[in-house]
Design a protein that fits this description.
Blueprint lengths: L7 H25 L1 H13 L9 H15 L3 H20 L15 H16 L10
Helix pairs in contact: 1-3, 1-5, 3-4, 4-5
Pfam families: DoxX (PF07681)
InterPro entries: DoxX, DoxX-like_oxidoreductase
Keywords: Cell membrane, Membrane, Transmembrane, Transmembrane helix
Amino acid sequence: MLQALHNDALGKLILRLTVAGLLLPHGLTKLLNPGSLTWIGNTLATQGLPTVLAYGVLVGEVVAPLMTLIGWRSRVGALLMVANMLVAIFLVHMGELTAFKDNGAWALELQGFFLFGALALVFLGSGRMAWRPD
């Protein structure tokens, strides 16, 4: 019975589908709502960065999750998601790094999940249940 629970490939598949599948709707929302890209561009501008970098969020939240979901260059896709989350935390959430909600949850719980889940995928790879295992 316990031997059936030793399935690394299935565990990697579940992690890939969860992290990428939950991040993808964030990117699709930004893709369908151009005003959000304008807001991101303005936020970049306040940091002295070019506003064109706002389109990088589409790479980190649409292209990278799709790569990871299907298992094509999953490590690269996961690394792009890590970079995306680091930029998001730096630009928008720095003031919440040490903050907690009333229920005791870390204020950056969701961002932390995406960041560290994607980082785990960088090291684990796609597993064999992928279009192109790495």
